[in-house]
Amino acid sequence: MASSVFFDPLTLLRLAPHWMLRIFALPELERDSNQYLPKWFHAFFRAGLPSVLAFLSVTMVTSTLNLRVQSPLLLKQRGSYYWYAAGAALAAGHLLFVPAVAPKIQAIVEDESKETSVGELRRWLRVNAIRGLTTDMGAWVCCVVAVVRTFSV
User: For residues 40 and 33, what is the distance between their CA atoms, to the nearest angstrom?
Assistant: First the structure.
């Protein structure tokens, strides 16, 4: 799929949960969202976490394999070696945000009072936006640059 070298349509799919979750934080839906978010979030993360971990693992493993299997000299000559390394490091960097988001997710899931979930969701969305614009987007850009440089003539 040649078009994915310049634009990966799956990137939009990966951003979709962030944009969809913002709907729950709308002021006019806050009362209902507080009521339903704990159960919904529990199901959302049970289903979504394996996918996120799979995408991160594929990026980290394939980038690292490129560094190990291909000739490092060739990759350095092509100017892609450090791009692959940065892509792997940034993908792993996604996990550095776990301590910042895990308590927020847990607070949403365990909100027995059904009164604080939206506030926690707003805090989680802020951290998620920062993570998406730094480690996630950075990893994607680094990997695309690495592939383009590696296959350039």
Answer: 9
pTM for the predicted model, two decimal places: 0.81
User: 139, 91 in Cβ contact below 8 A?
Assistant: yes
Delimit the domains of the chain by residue range: 7-151
- pLDDT per residue of the chain (153 residues) written in tens, 0 to 9: 334 444 555 555 555 666 788 899 999 999 999 999 999 999 988 988 898 899 899 999 999 999 998 888 999 999 999 999 999 999 999 999 999 999 999 999 998 888 899 999 999 999 999 999 999 999 999 999 999 999 985
114 backbone φψ class: left, alpha, beta (φ>0; ψ -120 to 50) = left
